[in-house]
Amino acid sequence: MSLSDESLQETKVELLEALTQEAPNKEVLAERLSELRSADIAEILEDIVEDDEDLPTVLTLLDILSLERAANVLGYLPGEVQVEIVEKLSDTTFLALLEEMGSDERADLFNLLDEDRREALLRQMAHQEREDLKRLASYEEGTAGAIMTSDYVAIASGMTVSQSMMRVRQTAPDAETVYQIYIVDSDGKLTGTMSLRQLMVARPGAVVDDIMIKDVISIGVDEAQEEAARVVARYDLLALPVIDADNRMVGIVTHDDAMDVAESEATEDFHKGMSIGQLEDGVSRVPIWSLYRKRVFWLVLLVFANLFSGAGIAYFEETIAAQVALVFFLPLLIGSGGNAGAQAATLMVRGMATGDVGVKDWGKLLGRELLVAGSLGITMAIAVTPIGIMRGGEALAMVVAFSMVTIVLFGSLLGMCLPFVLERFKVDPATASAPLVTTLIDASGVVIYFSIATAIL
Amino acid sequence: MSLSDESLQETKVELLEALTQEAPNKEVLAERLSELRSADIAEILEDIVEDDEDLPTVLTLLDILSLERAANVLGYLPGEVQVEIVEKLSDTTFLALLEEMGSDERADLFNLLDEDRREALLRQMAHQEREDLKRLASYEEGTAGAIMTSDYVAIASGMTVSQSMMRVRQTAPDAETVYQIYIVDSDGKLTGTMSLRQLMVARPGAVVDDIMIKDVISIGVDEAQEEAARVVARYDLLALPVIDADNRMVGIVTHDDAMDVAESEATEDFHKGMSIGQLEDGVSRVPIWSLYRKRVFWLVLLVFANLFSGAGIAYFEETIAAQVALVFFLPLLIGSGGNAGAQAATLMVRGMATGDVGVKDWGKLLGRELLVAGSLGITMAIAVTPIGIMRGGEALAMVVAFSMVTIVLFGSLLGMCLPFVLERFKVDPATASAPLVTTLIDASGVVIYFSIATAIL
To answer: Looking at the predicted complex, does its ipTM rise above 0.95?
Structure first.
């Protein structure tokens, strides 16, 4: 069973008690830790670092684990927590730990260190290792290269099945996955792939080139990591090979890393949808100052955008003064338009993110949205008409009902089109956030409502 | 390389041309299809069914594929499209196709068929197969049981490594994954697990019970499928074993199915965040009527909720009539409160969905939100003060600034608390959608603003 929140908390308290005793019994602790999973130990460590700010205890705990285990645990921690911990380690311990980490996690951590520490570490590494690390650390953040690992199983073209099996066995301890095998030619170019399952049932004397799949799904090293995650999900891959401009194989993106990317992309889009900038960590951990900065930009911008609504109202001041009852329906009308528009925008943004909606679908979707939004507007107009009659008579009810249909229709179409327009101008469609759509519709709603009122009343 | 949107469209046109010729050349077509991936063929088929409503062509195309391939392609199609296609198949062809499908996909499709067809099919199945299908089809939608497959590799406790390897080789053609192996005792209880990698490097004579991992991460068959997806992501699993109430192993949830669940959960939360009900398919495919229904409920409800804002305005009609300039700032103030509140709600909802935020963090987060929202409110008040002075003098500016801080603070705290309150009452926190939060804040904002105005002016 996986650990529940409560039992994790209990385990944490237990461990803290044992660790902060005067002479901690390392054997008992090691025994207890061996029963826990790396992901769970990492969560406990993270809690200790952040809630209790007790770094010495964390170091004692890591010290009790084997190097391999400690490297594993470290890999589950957020980047900044990793840095906090390793800053307290000697170069020797740190180097030993780095060696045990997966090549992708090693490069990520390396990129977070300060210049001096990086130089010092590089000087103490073996040539091959240093070059591999420098190469992996050099890929731009957000690209497939930045999340790939170089620990994959490559088989030279021309090898037999039994030779390949031998190679798989040799590589097994270090490779991120041994279940997908890549065949490369003498130039390092990716020529084919096969699963371990295929290899296991193949005739031992066969040459891999004769049984491999030649048409390999791969991704360029500079392509977006979100694209890598989408390809992994679409074709149900265990790992996706990454190639450079010359078609040479440089790494793989594994299914678990792809899942992490997909999750953080969804979170990012979620936040964008409410006009929140990209947070560097979970909401409970990110610094308060950063949370302020990520939220304030759009809020203040929207304050000024909202002035257009105010200006609209100022323009119709006479109409309002003549019939103050009109103001009664103002929040209702512009709110409804905003809600319908935000719905339409959300459907498009998410559809575009999951690949369900493409620019080619625009025409078809516009027709559908016209029908749906029209029906929605009429339904809402019917709902609001009795109240209009009650509050201000039939004329006012007519104004309100007519405005409702127009505003909902206009809002929905605007909400639907905005993501496509943004995409066209190479802006992330998720920027068409609910607050932006709502504010735009608010201003237009004011004008539509009072224009109709001025015309009819 | 994976296919781009455009090349998929080209391939579709090509295939349609070849298929609708009077005597389609099946050999050439088979050759062409063999170069395509199942996921891509499925997308083309889906397009043909939906855009062109050309079912006969789809059947011809499926007929050219091998049974195994056809079953594979079918598995990538949305449920309703699968049903449309198989309705046109004879029982014999359908049964042969079902046999080739993965057990989880078979059960899903089976559940979508009408009663008569189900009965007819069951009668023609072998006993073992029928029981397996009935069992898998019986799990409630949304549970781990409903997405698990029963095609996994189980090893009897007591077997040696070499016996186990033999078993893996035998099961390889049918199992969903052979890379994770489960050890069960004579009662069918799950006692341990090991990876194929571990098995490959183990001494052939060793007994699996001595090398397996005994503390297996598993999930109950009735637990939510989202929980299964979270466990797979948290522990980077290839597959998660599913057990019944007696700890007997009944299936596995594979990493690719977990990724699909995580994606559709994110989409669902996205839509809920904008008060859209759960769509049964992508936005470009779902029927218009269904799209209307999923959007209208909340919209109409919010119309009535918005009446509270109207009532608030009606209550302060005298204040407004005395100083119409107040209305100028109304959209701005309640809009800003709504935006800040929606931001706070979104951060909480997503944090709770990804497991980053728990109820235990509530106190800490409340303190943080007070600080952040306070700072945001003050910033926005400063931004709006000059406009207040310009429009209506210092007194009005003071009213607006003071209202801004109060409304933003109140809105943010409301937005933050609502998801927790809903969770407490066992309602999905994602129901605390932006429109709901905004509407609640709108009404409160009206009261706050005009109360402050009445007091000061």
So the answer is: no
